[in-house]
Q: What sequence folds into this?
């Protein structure tokens, strides 16, 4: 599916010949804010050197010399960001969600993650995972690996080769897990530093992220060291926060000095402020924790599929949007059963309907515009200017061919967009671009 | 994909040569009750003249002469029954679930259903719908058409040709809808009788079912006539019950003499007892209504996808199972966004998790065994001995090839079954049999 070149006419004075400069034509949809979507029937989306230049109803003269790919009646939207998922858990997606979090970790997750000590297993498993992620609507993702350095490097190698842009964490765990999945504190710190030194300068698109699994998995000593490493290397941080009621009670026991779960990260310098930080879930965050999230600019990875599967509850995401918190969407595989981020938009809407009905009719349910923003610009912001087609944004785009979703109706562009979360998956992704590079 | 014949050995005395007698080999799973599943690794499933004879770990001598089809490592399960869906709404699946029921009906549903006055539109729309249903995991379904006799006959013709077994209702509506979708009482009765006379004796697999849309759509006079017609022709009845709080309040106003919504059907002879009856939803049924449902043997069509999308709530299905009510699963397209009944099993489990967390931790969430029963034998019972592989059940089976759901793990048969609701769709249905006839 090459890009057909248009003739360069003699009067083009500013010629951009870079391979990553081109024009896509099609039905374009993107967000500038959480409340409305921008729609262009048969619009032109201009990419200059891997960055968006803008969307136009007719192509400005200055871009007419660029190669143009006409996607005709297809939909063109920003690539989606999956702010939180566990690569090793992809192996058991769809299995075991008859448990709550802590039971599920012990019964399904830890035994599976233990297998990644074996590089041959990791190689096989991560081939499958990366291939599925590459075919999906996701262009960027923030990913947990396991405690194993070698397997984590394997995962990073494969992700780098996929063309996706990701942050990947070697997980740290020095307590409260089975022996086969527990490091000594010293080992955890040493392996983390060794991993960072091996990864340094090796990748263009794949960045390490500091990854204490969650408070119950890490001693104060380890947390202290990870906070120091994050500052020293200026590396972002990811972890879990206020997902499940039993987990929250346990954290309170483990770190009694912390007023909230969030503070149990903050006291170790692992809660934003100086480096980017993303916390998965925030289903049950009290106001004080929300204030800290906001003050420190911490991102929330809303994971509605997982929060339903593991009976965690329903996060009041619309409140977070209203309060100006930074929020994105996440699959949380394998709490979530699928990497399909289109589906996660539907799950976010659906969960918010039940929250409105069952918990608080004062908080409106999420709209399509809300969740489209979360899956694009909301989560994309964790990677910088990502997730929109506004000028200077990274040119991440997916092309969706929805013609197989047959209907006798003439659908408006809004209606075609609105049904994607409920009906579309990797079958419908016709092409994908990341920073102006076409992956397929 | 023909059935390979095994040699008939001379000592077979009871030879069955009927085309609908054969053996399938594969990994077989079915339910006898709501609490446990029956699993056979590499089992034999025997079909004699369109009916199950049984499942065997090794093939009894008396069936060795039958043609045998080896599905190797594929999964073989009973065909699924979709107890409630609206064929004309398939056209706008995935669109408009930002509304609650009554608003959604007026904004999306009624305008779409109005189009089926035009047989050309109905022809096109129902071609799409029937083709998708035929490819899905569904083998039997109970279906709403629209008020239009001609379009309803078109739908029945297409369903008959598909090989699926269905009950289809010309909808009755003589009040509280736009003019273009409202019949006079007389017209509604006349058209219903004419439809029944046209359908009489025309189909093998497609049966008419009396279909008052819901209490708000039908005057007492029309309800009285429909109850009489149902008894006269001994025809089953389908409608909606206790789906949405505003709807329930409205019914109370419309039929103040009825203690419960259910009684507003019962008083017109449209609530089971003498003929089979299925009521969709029962999200908010009070105890008195549940007692009436039980006493009259009325089936509940649990529609978790729809109940979430339209913010209706979460039905306490596990309670209904415990109370011995008759319950099956339904997509309720287009309240539900898809005809994929495998997915509806996941939605039932998922909704029950949230109900457990948010409403009543005293009622356990649904298990895979529970929902597999609902989707097979639970709903199948509306069609008679349907939805199991026990002897004398109709031979409805689907063959699922899950090999594309890649994983590095060795999955047990239980695990393979358990992930189907979360991951499988029509792509994975390799073959389908209805009453012993292979559809594809």
A:
């Amino acid at each position: 599916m090459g890009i057909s070149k248009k003739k360069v006419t003699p009067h083009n004075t500013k010629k951009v010949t870079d391979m990553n400069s081109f024009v896509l034509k099609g039905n374009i949809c993107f967000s500038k804010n959480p409340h409305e979507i921008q729609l262009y029937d048969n619009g032109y989306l201009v990419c200059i050197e891997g960055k968006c230049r803008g969307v136009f109803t007719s192509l400005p003269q200055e871009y007419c010399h660029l190669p143009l790919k006409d996607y005709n009646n297809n939909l063109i939207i920003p690539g989606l960001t999956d702010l939180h998922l566990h690569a090793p858990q992809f192996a058991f997606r769809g299995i075991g969600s008859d448990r709550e979090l802590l039971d599920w970790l012990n019964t399904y997750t830890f035994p599976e993650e233990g297998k990644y000590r074996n590089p041959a297993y990791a190689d096989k498993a991560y081939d499958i995972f990366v291939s599925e992620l590459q075919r999906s609507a996701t262009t960027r993702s923030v990913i947990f690996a396991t405690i194993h350095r070698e397997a984590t490097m394997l995962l990073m190698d494969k992700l780098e080769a996929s063309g996706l842009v990701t942050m990947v964490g070697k997980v740290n765990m020095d307590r409260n897990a089975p022996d086969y999945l527990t490091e000594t504190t010293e080992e955890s710190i040493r392996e983390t530093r060794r991993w960072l030194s091996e990864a340094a300068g090796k990748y263009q698109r794949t960045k390490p992220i500091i990854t204490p699994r969650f408070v119950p998995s890490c001693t104060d000593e380890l947390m202290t060291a990870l906070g120091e490493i994050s500052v020293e290397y200026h590396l972002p941080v990811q972890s879990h926060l206020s997902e499940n009621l039993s987990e929250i009670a346990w954290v309170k026991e483990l770190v009694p000095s912390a007023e909230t779960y969030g503070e149990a990260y903050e006291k170790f310098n692992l809660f934003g402020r100086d480096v980017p930080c993303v916390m998965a879930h925030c289903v049950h965050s009290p106001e004080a924790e929300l204030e800290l999230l906001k003050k420190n600019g911490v991102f929330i990875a809303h994971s509605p599929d997982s929060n339903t599967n593991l009976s965690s509850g329903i996060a009041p995401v619309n409140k977070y949007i209203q309060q100006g918190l930074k929020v994105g969407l996440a699959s949380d595989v394998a709490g979530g059963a699928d990497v399909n981020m289109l589906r996660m938009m539907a799950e976010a809407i659906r969960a918010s309907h039940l929250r409105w009905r069952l918990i608080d009719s004062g908080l409106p349910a999420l709209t399509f515009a809300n969740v489209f923003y979360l899956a694009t610009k909301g989560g994309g912001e964790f990677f910088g200017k990502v997730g929109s087609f506004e000028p200077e944004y990274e040119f991440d785009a997916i092309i969706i061919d929805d013609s197989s979703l047959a209907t006798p109706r003439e659908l408006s562009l809004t209606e075609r967009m609105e049904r994607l979360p409920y009906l579309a998956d990797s079958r419908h992704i016709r092409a994908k671009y990341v920073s102006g590079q076409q992956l397929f």
